[in-house]
Amino acid sequence: MKPDSDLQSRVVTALVRDPRIDESSIGVSVHHGVVTLNGNVASYGVKAVVGEVVHAVHGVLDVANDLEVRPSWQRRPSDAEIAEAARNALAKALGERHAQIQTTVQGRGHVVLEGLAPRVDRDLAERAVRAVDGVELVTNTIEAV
Predict the structure, then answer these.
(1) What's the distance, Cα to Cα, between the start and end of the chain in Å?
(2) What is the spatial distance between Cα 114 and Cα 117, in angstroms, rounded to a whole number?
(3) Which residue numbers in the chain have pLDDT < 70?
(4) Do residues 46 and 34 touch, judged by C-beta distance below 8 A?
(5) Which of 2, 84, 88, 122 is the most buried (most CB within 10 A)?
């Protein structure tokens, strides 16, 4: 095995063996001894434990702990709920002009804005949609007129 793939295997094994950790939502990548963790954990405490466990694995030089804390009780809005909330936010920010803008909500909170609108409305629309719960990314393709 290559050194990085061997280290990755040992890190994953350490996570699996620790009863405090649910490793099913944790991704591990290794590059030159630097371990990057991504995915979701239930609490900040678990995030800290994961970091400690990974640092304890022989050969790990550094850890980039990019784990996101998502408590199990925290329900993520569906794409339909995000779309409705985005439309309401647009209506509040732009009044009747909100009808000039269309939204598409793609998986995991990615909202695409489309249409023709004055530049000021283009920017207002993006700010309004960014504030909607569950939105993680906004792609603004509104053409300024």
Answers:
(1) 58
(2) 9
(3) 1, 72-75
(4) no
(5) 122
User: Domain 3-69 is of which CATH architecture?
Assistant: 2-Layer Sandwich (3.30)
CB 74 within 8 A of CB 87: no
8 A C-beta contact, residue 85 and residue 77 = yes
User: Does the domain formed by 79-144 have CATH 3.30.1340.30?
Assistant: yes
For CATH 3.30.1340.30, the residue range(s) in the chain are 3-69, 79-144
| pLDDT score at 42 | 81
| pTM summary value | 0.53
Choose among 59, 54, 57, 61: nearest CA to 28: 54
Nearest to 28 by CA among 44, 45, 16, 46: 16
- pLDDT of 72 reads 66
- Cα distance between residue 21 and residue 12, in whole Å: 11
Residues 6+ apart with CB under 8 A from 62: 33, 34, 35
Q: What is the pLDDT of residue 24?
A: 84
pLDDT at 86: 95
pLDDT of residue 60: 96
